[in-house]
Design brief:
single chain, alpha+beta, Type Iii Antifreeze Protein Isoform Hplc 12, 5-stranded antiparallel sheet, 7 helices, elongated
Length: 204
């Protein structure tokens, strides 16, 4: 420090060199700081859960938050527009800050990923037995059975189970809502049957 002070107080070439060294060191420090700062222009927007959300939640704008993040950490199917998610149903639980992707919402993308087949469609059914619904989780394979014990569909895959808290008292009286994925040629028959009566399932 004493040498630096002496160099700065000395006139001529020594003083010039000292000033240049100080300027170079300052520029190097500034460059290092700038490299550590996030590049806002290079970041991408994505929707995340604004709070912890339960499976079967119908999303509202207050459930969602738009954030910016480096492209490398943004999921490929992440949504970046609140209007694209608001009003949609979340198929699985989401923690606060978790990205919201099209595959997390009830629809073709989720059904395709759950079943591994593009030739399936999601069908809502109401189960007569509340206890059976509690045993189900997304990805489980079940057979759908009518009250007369006729098998309406075999090997259906559970997509979503709506919690009892998310249903009105009238809906609970009608049976617990479960969404299953079925082949397209079977889905209409099961959908029609579940409208007329409650059904049950057997686990595989």
């Amino acid at each position: 420090m004493n040498r630096l002070r002496q160099a700065l107080t000395t006139s001529g070439w020594v003083r010039t060199v000292a000033i240049r060294r100080i300027a170079a060191a300052a520029l190097l420090t500034l460059a290092l700081v700038l490299t550590m700062l996030p590049d806002r222009d290079a970041e991408a927007e994505m929707l995340v859960a604004a709070r912890d959300l339960a499976p079967g939640t119908t999303l509202s704008a207050s459930d969602l938050k738009l954030v910016r993040a480096p492209p490398a950490v943004v999921p490929k199917a992440a949504l970046a527009d609140v209007s694209a998610a608001a009003g949609q149903v979340l198929t699985g639980a989401a923690s606060a800050g978790e990205p919201i992707t099209s595959a997390r919402l009830l629809g073709p993308a989720n059904t395709r990923l759950t079943t591994g087949s593009p030739d399936t469609t999601a069908v809502p059914v109401r189960l007569a037995d509340e206890g059976v619904a509690e045993l189900l989780m997304p990805g489980a394979r079940v057979d759908i059975v009518a009250p007369d014990q006729a098998v309406l569909a075999s090997g259906a895959i559970v997509v979503m189970v709506r919690s009892a808290e998310q249903s009105t008292s009238r809906q609970r009286d009608q049976g617990r809502l479960v969404v299953v994925a079925l082949p397209r040629d079977v889905a209409p028959r099961v959908a029609a049957a579940s409208l007329a009566r409650e059904v049950t399932v057997t686990l595989r």
